[in-house]
């Protein structure tokens, strides 16, 4: 009887119209379907938009750091000031501090302005010379110490313009903001415009950004990534040399030899957990074990490299094991069948076939390590380092910086010009990452075999 | 000899051992007319392994032990009287180390003879200025005992270094010679070298265990030190975080934990709906072309370093939220806020949710879908009523993994969340997290053996336990779920 009554209820809803004409309920359900689908599409669009927004923000802020404003001046290297005893001895020239060079630049600028007939009301020679970076006398001094024979001659130099003038040509500083700024004035900007018309002041590609060391808070225009790139390269070298053999060896054991027992399980659980430990905890480990216990120096690439090695190992082990697993057992069986030992079958046959997969995993692990910041902060890589580390292996123990840490460092500075520098450094970092990932993709495409 | 040079010498010795061992095996077999048990190269390999591996172990062990031995000896030379009031012994010892390193630099720069140090013709007053020249600036008066200790430290390091060179090379040569004399045509060289290599493989796979042990050991050890100086009950139950340079700090974990959880919650509120919908759309609706473009783009989000997100939060998202939401609504004027960090972190963990959920949705058997369609359900009804319930455990696992990632994240919150530790509900306020405080307490200038620094280890341990717990639960759920359909 129940069946009949149920049937009767349903029967009331049964369509009496054509099936091609949907009723209200079907329309509702179809609308819900379309809505749900739309939500999905919106979510995907949001995800892609987030990526685009992120990259657009970084690039719009950072691309200008690859251009830099320079003032080209003919500086007379006055022997009366730079080399009083006339010996041309680098040691005695070095006694003249950077303050001794400032008047030379001031004079050269005044002469250049006079020659081109440029003058701006309310600007004396001293105020005009503030157009030029405080770093300029130091670089002039370094040049003279390196080339003492040029003393007494007039040499043409490209001197850095000050950060505010540089910012004016990148749209960061305007006449209005300059009027409120203690470090520059609208008059200076007008003068800069006149100098640009006269061809003395130019904005061009900034090679120094890749080679120069960091600079102090007040000289953003002179800061560069040289030490950071070198430090990162050293650390990547250490990570590669240590984690690739260790990771491959561990994977071979776990995948090919390890018996099913407690010890193997312990290792497996450990590797799975290490992959999920927050990176900052590795920094604490580095500080406690490598610096406080083993007494390795702070801020040194060796400590950073060791910490990043431990972080990268799980990635490499997981990738290597997947690659080893992908080699079909028939290869091993064939090798064993013609009399190879187990070790021979693995090292002569399985490992070479798994190599593309292993290298791909290694490069991806290295790319992760390259972008890692938090553990490096704890082992003292935030220190202000202006000296280039020595060549390897001694340089591994010298203080250095790293690309992502340099970004962090610059975000902590007051001058807004450092935001541009930090974004520029990120672009450099991203370019390295893209290159590494491209290599990994090409390796995979070209050498990966499907069995 | 420097470590690098010793390393190279041992490598060269090993390479030489390979050829010598191989040649000896061949000549012995030619003399006696007996066939070799293994291929000739295995005899060389055995000798090379015996030269290199024990020597490297000695080298590494020596590098670890020498500083400890020297430190303890120098420690004995520094009497308690020279330790300043309120200062720590470890600071004096680190001064000793710095002076010792500075002396090296002074000697090499000024070309002073080694003997000048020992015969006392250079005393501390004359060398102080020179130390400053090479970048070792000393604060306050350094007593002569410390200077003497620094000289002893230097001597000890020098002597230790020499002994290390001798010991490593001796071990290399002794083991090499021993394995060399061992070579006979019937020696099972392949088996020996393979056993050796297998031992090395096992040793490398224990690195994972050692790392975990190192992490747990260092965290627990320093946390115990911390709790000796600061009561554990205050740490776990106090709601005030207020570290002071001169002691008397309040170091309650709750404000930090609250900030961490609040930011992670916002991140999950952003990432879970978006990530789940992305996974559903890509798995169920998207055409092949859309999927092949959108999936990698979403996954790129996971490959971008967190410092990039941090900068994004600092220069774009933070000011945007402040100018268009917080200030017009009168909710705050800080560009670093819980919402800034939460939003950006949400973007970062979208791919963690979406990729794993995508895999899990794909793992739901097609028969379930077909059954649902056969009953007349629309696609969205099938997803909501059949696929999601079936995939729920796996999705929960994915969300837990994302949560653990969010809780342990550092750079986004360092740059985006601010440094003020407070218990507040306003998402436009700057708050701080456990990870931010680990960074700030360990990178500050406070001395190491103070509760203000050591608290970082207790925070680290808390963080480690929370993320590990979340991960274990998540992996358990995901694994259990996978078994269901296999």
UniProtKB/TrEMBL annotation, chain A:
Q: What membrane topology is annotated for this entry?
A: Multi-pass membrane protein
Keywords (A to Z) from UniProt: Cell membrane, Membrane, Transmembrane, Transmembrane helix, Transport
Which Gene3D superfamilies does UniProt cross-reference here? MetI-like
Superkingdom of origin:
Bacteria
Residue ranges spanning the membrane: these are 36-59, 233-254, 274-296, 302-324, 350-371, 422-443
Task: Note whether NADP occurs among the keywords.
Answer: no
**Cellular compartments annotated:** Cell inner membrane; Cell membrane
Domain ABC transmembrane type-1, by residue range, is 229-440
Q: What is its main location?
A: membrane
**Do you know which Pfam families this protein is assigned to?**
BPD_transp_1, DUF3333
Protein's UniProt keywords contain Cytoplasm: no
Query: What family classification does the UniProt entry report for this protein?
Result: Belongs to the binding-protein-dependent transport system permease family. CysTW subfamily.
**Can you say what this protein is called?**
Phosphate transport system permease protein PstA
* Annotated source species: Mycoplana rhizolycopersici
- Lineage summary: Bacteria, Pseudomonadati, Pseudomonadota, Alphaproteobacteria, Hyphomicrobiales
From TrEMBL, chain B:
Transmembrane feature ranges: 41-65, 159-180, 200-221, 256-282, 302-321, 333-353, 454-478
Location of the ABC transmembrane type-1 domain: 257-474
Q: Where in the cell is it found?
A: Cell inner membrane; Cell membrane
User: SUPFAM superfamilies annotated for this entry?
Assistant: MetI-like (SSF161098)
User: Main localisation, per the record?
Assistant: membrane
Ranges in a coiled coil: none
Pfam families hit by this protein: BPD_transp_1, DUF3708
- Keywords, ordered alphabetically: Cell inner membrane, Cell membrane, Membrane, Phosphate transport, Transmembrane, Transmembrane helix, Transport
Source organism superkingdom: Bacteria
What's the protein's topology in the membrane?
A: Multi-pass membrane protein
What does the UniProt function comment say about this protein? Answer: Part of the binding-protein-dependent transport system for phosphate; probably responsible for the translocation of the substrate across the membrane.
Family to which this protein belongs: Belongs to the binding-protein-dependent transport system permease family. CysTW subfamily.
What NCBIfam families does its record include? phosphate_pstC (TIGR02138)
Q: Which PANTHER family match?
A: PHOSPHATE TRANSPORT SYSTEM PERMEASE, PHOSPHATE TRANSPORT SYSTEM PERMEASE PROTEIN
* Protein name, per record: Phosphate transport system permease protein
**Organism field:** Mycoplana rhizolycopersici
